[in-house]
Amino acid sequence: MDFLDRIIQLDKEFFIYLNGLGNESWDAFWIAATNMFTWIPLYLFLFYLVFKAFGWKKGLILVLITALMVTFSDQFANLIKHTFERLRPNNDPSINHFIRILSTPKGFSFYSAHAGTSMAVTTFMYKTLKDKFQYIYLLYLWPVIFAYSRIYVGVHFPIDILTGALTGFLIGLLFYKFSLFILKKYEPFLL
Fold it and tell me: Is the peptide bond before 111 cis (omega within 30 degrees of 0)?
């Protein structure tokens, strides 16, 4: 067994362990946590904070950049998924007969767009709002819960989550730098 095969095997074993920690009394919570629409109040709250901190002109620019970043993050994840074509745990015949499956998407697994996009938004919002709101770092709880939910419901391996989170972190930093450039370039129009 070569090095990459061993890493994939360890990833499957760790997934089986983490997924196996679930039980029926927690299923409803994790099914809700994995649904992006559950988090709409959080998104609205973040937009409120952006507008409160920066006013409506700069706030609108930051919201538009956030939307662009979410689109980029999601499409980049899809490109990677279609490049690697790794089966999701729920579709992997080597393990799907003895794991807990609470969701059955058909797409590919590597890497998690949920983990990537939530970490990108969190990083962008943290960098944007950290000087305005003392406890904004608590926002990092969101991608942790959101990403773990993907393991719990049986649709992503730990490497999918970690790679997605790292990629999302980098995308968030990149778009934060882009937002600084845009806000500086158009500052006279935003006053």
Answer: yes
Residue 105 included in any domain: yes
Three-state secondary structure call for residue 108: strand
Residue identified by tokens 């970490």 is 119
Q: How many domains does the chain have?
A: 1
Rg of the Cα atoms in the chain: 18
Which of 126, 145, 121 shows the shortest CA–CA distance to 137?
126
Q: Is residue 46 part of a domain?
A: yes
| Domain annotation covers residue 121 | yes
Instruction: Look at the pTM and tell me if it is higher than 0.85.
Output: yes
Q: How far is CA 36 from the centre of its chain?
A: 10
Q: Which regions of the chain are under pLDDT 70?
A: 1, 190-191
